[in-house]
Amino acid sequence: MRRSRTVPVDGAADAAWGALAGPAWSGPIGFVAAGDAAYAGTLRLIDADEDRRAVGGHAQARRTTGWGGVTASFAARPAPGGVALDAEIALSGDARADDGEALLDAVAARLEAAVRAGAVPAPAAAAGSPADDPAWRRRLAARAVLAIGIGAAAGLVGARLGRRR
Amino acid sequence: MKPAPLEYVAPRSVEEALGALDEDAKALAGGQSLVPLLNFRLARPARLVDLNGIDALAHLRRSAGTLRIGALTRQAVLERSRLVRDGWPLLTQAVGHVAHPAVRNRGTVGGSVAHADPAAELPVALAALDARFHLRSPRGMRTLDAAALFHAPLMTALEADELLVEIEVPPLPRGAGTAFVEYARTHGDFALAGAAVVRAGREHAAVALLGAGPTPVRAHDAERALCAGATAAEAARLAAAALDDDHRRALTTELVRQAIEEASA
Question: What is the ipTM of this complex?
Answer without folding.
Answer: 0.85
